[in-house]
Structures are given as structure tokens and as C-alpha cells.
Amino acid sequence: MRLKFRSLAPYLFVGPAVLSVAVFLYGPLIASVLLSLVDWNLLSSDIRFIGPDNYTSVLENADFRLSAWNTLLYCVVLIPAEIILPLILALMLHSVRKSPVQAIYRSSLFLPTIVAFSVAGVAWSWLFNPVNGLLNEILGFFGLPPSRWHTDPDLALLCVCVVTFWKTFGLNMLLWLAALANLPPVLREASQLDGASARLHFFTISLPLMTPTAFFISVTTFFHVLDDIVGVIDVLTHGGPAGRSSSIVYYLWQQGLQFFQFGPASAVAVIIIVLVLAITWLQFRIGEKRVHYR
């Protein structure tokens, strides 16, 4: 009996984890692929197989194309901003690591990260308010005309970028700060003895040693941008005006949970999965070769 339990023990311990992955990861993935091939509304019991028609209709849909273009713009603006600016802030905080003000600055800068998207969106909607918002009051103080901010089709996407960055940059800043704190101080002392400037020390010693952290941040920031902008869009602009601030993930949410069009929504989900896998593969293919593991 004891021998039989020992032979089954590995399967009993690993089984729940494997079952969870199968049910909550691969199960929805397979369901999305199957649903993308049928015409089905959640409110109807009629399910009809239509093959790849959902993909064709989605790719020809002007709203999806605009959402895809907006998503590209979000990535172009937010990914470099959420990698480089947190690094700069981390360098500034690291330079005052022996001062008690570092904890105050670090907590203050990280505080927006733990704020709920709904709270952040409501707070910024007050700041962006075209009638009596604080930002228009500041513009008026300097004699500038008021702006419509997130209700302006030309500024809505930029407003979502600002709020998303404010809400999410703190995590990357802490990761950079941890990487800087983990650098051996003897290297800094050696470079100072050799007369190396702070800039030369950073680009030739510190940054190459932090490439594992840089690679991790670059990969995860892409996922965060795709996911984080949805909460801001939903609270701040609802994808408007006229879809100018929507994204493909928000478009997916609208099709599936607002209009109950599960076929097109599943087709969009499969397209997003393929895009994410392809971009992640490229990131590993290109970036991992430049990572220096100590």
C-alpha cells in the first residue's frame, strides 16, 4: 500500500496544477478557436458553423482596423516611455539611496500603481473636465484657450496614454531600482579609480549587467500595455470619440460582453493570441542574445 502511494504521489501533487492549466488556460483557448468558427449570439440557442467568415468580417470591419491602428500607436508611445522614464527615475532615486527622502519619493511614485483603474480614471476625468477641470484652469491662468482633452478626437488617445503611464510606471521603476541595488559596488569604485565618468560607467558597466532585468521589463511591458489601457479606456473615454481611443482588446470586450457577438469576439481573441505569440517570439529571438547573465 505504501509503495503504491509513493508511485502515485508525484501525479497527485502535480495533478491539480496540470488540471488548473488545462481548464483555465488551454480550455478557453480551444473554446475561443471553436467559437470563432461559428455564428452564435449568447442570447440565442441557434449555433451555425460558418468557417472563417468571422475572421473575414472582423478584418474588413472599419472599427477593428481603427482599434488595431490605435493599439499600434499605444505601443509606440507607451512601451518606450514605460521602459526609459522609469529607468531615469530609478537612477535618480538610486543616487539618493543613503538619504531618508528616497523612501518618501519611492512610495509617492509607486502609489499610483496600487490605485484601482476606476479611481484613476475618475480622478483624471475631473482633471480633464473641459468645463471646470484643473488643467483648463491652469491653461486659463496662462491666458491659453481651454481644451476638450479626452473628448477631443485628436487628444483622446494621448490622454489615455498619460493616464496609463501614470498608473503603471511604478512597477518598472521598482524593478530598475532593484537591479541597480544589486550591482556590485566594487565595480563603481574600480571605474571611479580609472577615471570613468558616470555616463561611461552606466552605459559600459551598469546597463550590460542589468540586461536580464531590461529583457524581462521589455517583454512584460508589452503585455501590460495591451491589458492596462483597457481599464483606462473603459473609465475615461469608452473608446471614443468615434473609436479614436479604442484598442483591439477593448474592441474584443465590446463584441463579446457588450454586444454578445461571441463569434467575432472569439475571432478577435484568436488574432490577438497569434499576434502576442509572434511578437513574444521575436522579442526572445532578438533580445535574449543580448542578455548578459552573470
UniProtKB/TrEMBL annotation:
GO biological process assignments: transmembrane transport
Where in the cell is the protein located? Cell membrane
Record-annotated ABC transmembrane type-1 domain positions: 68-283
Cite the Pfam families for this sequence: BPD_transp_1
A Gene Ontology term for the protein's cellular component: plasma membrane
Which keywords label this protein? Cell membrane, Membrane, Plasmid, Transmembrane, Transmembrane helix, Transport
Looking at the UniProt entry, the stretches that span the membrane are 12-38, 71-96, 108-127, 155-181, 202-226, 259-284
Gene3D superfamilies recorded: MetI-like
**SUPFAM superfamilies, sorted:** MetI-like
Its membrane topology: Multi-pass membrane protein
Which family would the database say this protein is a member of?
Belongs to the binding-protein-dependent transport system permease family.
**The protein's name in its UniProt record:** Sugar ABC transporter permease
Species for this entry: Rhizobium jaguaris
